[in-house]
């Protein structure tokens, strides 16, 4: 609904009120005379609440001219219904109308029309609304039919409202977009950092749920999908898919490592080196840790430069001399880098942003 305060002015001619006068151009009266003469019985169609202002007295004015012309003015505040369509909310424009009609007199008894067409409707240039921009006012008129009483003249005050989008950009669209972009950070985090990636995904999902709940709480309960619902739910799907993406990465990594473990158990001497020992070094060990390894002497350790390499390697070392060991390492050491990034993460870094940008292009081109 909408609420409007207006000055409603009626013009008509009643020869019974004419009077001869050479000095007075008109005579003005207050609301007390209105009850003693005939006035149009105009009411507001589809109004919910309306009242005539009465501070400090009734805001009613009656002006009678010597030839019988009458000006009847009153100050009214009316709340009327407007059939709004929220399918494009908040990128929507609403067209509302205030309808005036005689309650008792049909078109055969009383003819209502706008005195000067669109010029009959004048608005304050300082009118501004917090959510809407008033684009235009215009007037129309046509007949309304009631099956039991007949045809009536009906006047329309039509106006178009366009919603301000900046508020919703700050409160809805920007936070939702930032949450989607935040969920993409997971693709650059090490796949073995389970707490970091899981907590990031759950946080973004819960935040998107909060945004959706807050927007729907301030909206009418409509049975169709709004434009903001499409954007928020698509953003929610992107955030949710980022969580599922890590679940897939973690599962495939576990399966891969399980297969490799079975292969090592089945072929323990696949290195091709006789009387060799195999140890696992991750590059993050101290000098004392290296000396305390059972079955290995200090001379069997790798060089200091090789210690600094931040990767997991399989080193096969025999009991030969240092020079022959180095040649054996070059020719026979099995070296395999376990990547910190899964192939799914690499593709996701391109697919997720590209798809979301494509969705935004389509969304804003359609609804704006």
TrEMBL record:
Report keywords, A-Z.
Answer: Cell membrane, Chloride, Chloride channel, Disulfide bond, Glycoprotein, Ion channel, Ion transport, Membrane, Postsynaptic cell membrane, Receptor, Signal, Synapse, Transmembrane, Transmembrane helix, Transport
Q: Where is this protein primarily located?
A: membrane
Statement: the UniProt record of this protein carries the keyword Kinase: no
Q: Which residues form the Neurotransmitter-gated ion-channel transmembrane domain?
A: 172-364
- Family matches, as PROSITE patterns: NEUROTR_ION_CHANNEL
Q: Which domain of life is it from?
A: Eukaryota
Q: From the record, give the transmembrane residue ranges.
A: 165-186, 198-218, 230-252, 350-367
Residues of the signal peptide: none
Q: Which NCBIfam families match?
A: LIC (TIGR00860)
Q: What is this protein called?
A: GABA(C) receptor
Organism listed in the record: Pterocles gutturalis (yellow-throated sandgrouse)
